[in-house]
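Each record in this resource describes a single protein on a pair of labelled lines. An example record follows, reproduced without changes.
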Amino acid sequence: MTPSDEILDIVDENDEVIGQAPRGEATARGLRHRCVFIEVRDAEGRVFVHRRTATKLVFPSHYDMFVGGVVGAGESYDGAALREAEEELGVSGLPEPEPLFRFLYTSAEHTWWSAVYQVRCELPVVPQAEEVAWHTFLDDTELDARLDEWPWVPDGLDAYRRLKEFRAL
């Protein structure tokens, strides 16, 4: 099965399931579904940052300060967060990501309910080659300095700004 064939729950403005569709169709038709964003920090507190591969269905070759992805049909946000983090980082035995908040992401082309998590990864990472073209760990100052320099995934940038506001409360 290709990523575009993966079945997703389609949700309404209240995050209630109203149907299902293949991922490719959901993306093409702008159907609202669910996503997870996991901020990964290493033992030194630095954030995992990566450039997505050119073959990604959405936002190819853009940088991201989160790992994550879509929530499969019938899958919980928590289950998707752990699965996506371990897959993208190429690790197993990661602690359960800690849920922080949810928000509705909407742009002209896309809309999805988004759950934001954080997790500490002290394991050596071997990022998934199909997902990650390049990676590093940056401290907060280095990351913020790159925000205007690199092309970032817009939903991740939105989630990052909301996370900073969340932590400032």
Remarks:
- The helical segments are 23-29, 77-89, 140-146, 154-168.
- The chain has a mean pLDDT of 95.
- Residues 154-168 form the longest helix (15 residues).
- DSSP finds four helices and nine strands in the chain.
